[in-house]
Amino acid sequence: MKNVRVAVVGAGVVGVSTAVCVAETLPSCAVTLIAEAFSPDTTSDGAAGILFAAEFPDVPIATQRRWFKSSFQHLLAIAQSEHAPEAGVTMSSGWQIFKEVPENQKPFWWDLVIGFRTMTHEELRRFPDHKFGQAFTTLKCECRSYLPWLQRRFRAAGGRVEQRRLSSLQDVGGGFHLVVNCSGLGSRVLAGDVQMEPVRGQVLQVEAPWLQHFIRDGDGKTYIYPGIRSVTIGGTRQAGDWRLQEDRTDTEGILERCRQLEPSLARAKVLSCWVGLRPGRRNPRLEREWLQLGGRRVPVVHNYGHGGWGVTLAWGTAEHAVELVRQSLRENLQSRL
Ligand SMILES: Cc1cc2nc3c(=O)[nH]c(=O)nc-3n(C[C@H](O)[C@H](O)[C@H](O)COP(=O)(O)OP(=O)(O)OC[C@H]3O[C@@H](n4cnc5c(N)ncnc54)[C@H](O)[C@@H]3O)c2cc1C
Ligand SMILES: O=C([O-])CC(=O)C(=O)O
Question: Whose CA is closest to atom 1 on ligand 2?
Answer without folding.
Answer: 220
